[in-house]
Amino acid sequence: MSDEEGHPRRWAILVALCAALLVIVIDNTVLHVAVPAIGDAFDASTDQLQAVIDAYVVVFAGLLITAGVLSDRYGRRRALVAGLLVFGAASALAAAAPSVWWLIAMRALMGVGAALVMPATLAVLVVVFPEQERPRAFAVWSAVASVGMAAGPLLGGALVDMWSWAGVFLINIPVVAVALFGVVRLVPETRAPDRRGLDPFGTVLVTAGMTGLVWALIEAPAYGYTAPAVLGGAAVALMALIGFGVRQRRSAAPMVDLRLYRDRRFSGASFAVAVMTIATGSTLFVLSQYLQLVLGYSAFETGLAAVPLAAGVVAGSTVGGRAPARFGPRACIVAGFTVTAAGFVVLASLSEGSGYVAVSSGLALAGVGSGIAGPSATSTVLGAVPPERAGMGSALNDTHQQLGIALGVAGLGSLLATVYRGKLPDGLPDDAMSSLGATLSHARDHADGGALADAARSAFTDAQSVTMSVGVAAALVGAAVALFALPGRATRATAPDPESEEAGQPG
């Protein structure tokens, strides 16, 4: 197989990889609608339910870099198979959970499996697809991820209504089985040719650092940025990541080659995408409250809000997969981020009288922009990474996005809460100002509750507009970074030391 021709079964391989990706992405969103049923089943506290959700995300993000390095050393197909097996087994054990703490532990184990799967999918695509076809492959990959994101809440709601909360875990098993069959049957084994030794201490440092950082970002809005636990997690993360960086600079065979960040393609595209995910990561969380508590839509109707976003990504990906060959990746990223900014302009203009059409239009535009920009951004990032380090490069790409999402949830969530509290009428108790739901609950117990509920909905809508305006700014900053930092045409990555490293070959 040559890099110019690609693997003869590369499109079938893409289908198998997308099946593996689908189960990972669905699990990011499918659980949210099952949280009330889980709370009833285990009489779980709010903190415990939050831990059920966060355990997966924190472990997943914390292990991405380590998993990517392991896949380069031991084989990407092997990492895929191991990750799917762990994910499937943990899903089955989660469905049979006897307690909420068991469920939390299994969610963390599912995060381990997801971390092994996610970077390996992109790494295999880099190897089996020739450079000119990669944007199209990445477009399909992104579209599948978006469909999975949209399908999660709808699928979860149907399973909980028809069966029980356990259904959101048991549904993973047949999908994992299909993905395993496709991976074993179709995906060739690839790995780094030099098989450099592992750095156990560096692995501990980067895992502890990433886990602590993501945990602190996720928990800060709930506990406060000055809470001892949050500050402690941030301090551990900072010390661990600084130690990891120093260790990598001194290593002759580093886990992560920090020289990649000197490449404008890698650093520019990574920063642009991270900025974008800051805005997009919390969009559906904010809009779900608006749709249900301001406009009065049901949970199922709210779940449908993700459909226009996913449809927009699919539509945009048909352009984003082909346009780079003609216009170059920089033009596609700038154009895509500009369209996404237009979507956030629509979302920032929503009012208490807006309807579902306005919400859908904004989300569809944001999705189209992401679909146009995503394949070029991914191709640019991974194009700066030597093919034999594809696992590490894919893991870094995923990590930048996960950090952007976590930072968006923390930062924009806090901004939303701060603006909301500032616009509420004076004299309300603190617990009634914590969220729109809490204010509406407080209003139902008072004689003038109707006026208070109207004021709360107005305050939330104003706060949402401020938050979405930040999304506009983030999208435009990402477009500006791409315009000024990236070259007009992609250039191929070369290994830092060509005498000691060769391109990865199928095993």
From TrEMBL:
<keyword id="KW-0812">Transmembrane</keyword>
<keyword id="KW-1133">Transmembrane helix</keyword>
<dbReference type="InterPro" id="IPR005829">
    <property type="entry name" value="Sugar_transporter_CS"/>
</dbReference>
<feature type="transmembrane region" description="Helical">
    <location>
        <begin position="331"/>
        <end position="350"/>
    </location>
</feature>
<feature type="transmembrane region" description="Helical">
    <location>
        <begin position="12"/>
        <end position="31"/>
    </location>
</feature>
<feature type="transmembrane region" description="Helical">
    <location>
        <begin position="82"/>
        <end position="104"/>
    </location>
</feature>
<dbReference type="InterPro" id="IPR036259">
    <property type="entry name" value="MFS_trans_sf"/>
</dbReference>
<feature type="transmembrane region" description="Helical">
    <location>
        <begin position="297"/>
        <end position="319"/>
    </location>
</feature>
<feature type="transmembrane region" description="Helical">
    <location>
        <begin position="162"/>
        <end position="186"/>
    </location>
</feature>
<feature type="transmembrane region" description="Helical">
    <location>
        <begin position="403"/>
        <end position="420"/>
    </location>
</feature>
<feature type="transmembrane region" description="Helical">
    <location>
        <begin position="466"/>
        <end position="486"/>
    </location>
</feature>
<feature type="transmembrane region" description="Helical">
    <location>
        <begin position="266"/>
        <end position="291"/>
    </location>
</feature>
<feature type="transmembrane region" description="Helical">
    <location>
        <begin position="51"/>
        <end position="70"/>
    </location>
</feature>
<keyword id="KW-0472">Membrane</keyword>
<feature type="transmembrane region" description="Helical">
    <location>
        <begin position="356"/>
        <end position="382"/>
    </location>
</feature>
<feature type="domain" description="Major facilitator superfamily (MFS) profile">
    <location>
        <begin position="13"/>
        <end position="490"/>
    </location>
</feature>
<keyword id="KW-0046">Antibiotic resistance</keyword>
<feature type="transmembrane region" description="Helical">
    <location>
        <begin position="198"/>
        <end position="218"/>
    </location>
</feature>
<dbReference type="GO" id="GO:0005886">
    <property type="term" value="C:plasma membrane"/>
</dbReference>
<feature type="transmembrane region" description="Helical">
    <location>
        <begin position="137"/>
        <end position="156"/>
    </location>
</feature>
<dbReference type="GO" id="GO:0022857">
    <property type="term" value="F:transmembrane transporter activity"/>
</dbReference>
<dbReference type="InterPro" id="IPR011701">
    <property type="entry name" value="MFS"/>
</dbReference>
<feature type="transmembrane region" description="Helical">
    <location>
        <begin position="224"/>
        <end position="246"/>
    </location>
</feature>
<dbReference type="InterPro" id="IPR020846">
    <property type="entry name" value="MFS_dom"/>
</dbReference>
<dbReference type="Pfam" id="PF07690">
    <property type="entry name" value="MFS_1"/>
</dbReference>
<feature type="transmembrane region" description="Helical">
    <location>
        <begin position="110"/>
        <end position="130"/>
    </location>
</feature>
<dbReference type="GO" id="GO:0046677">
    <property type="term" value="P:response to antibiotic"/>
</dbReference>
<protein>
    <recommendedName>
        <fullName>Major facilitator superfamily (MFS) profile domain-containing protein</fullName>
    </recommendedName>
</protein>
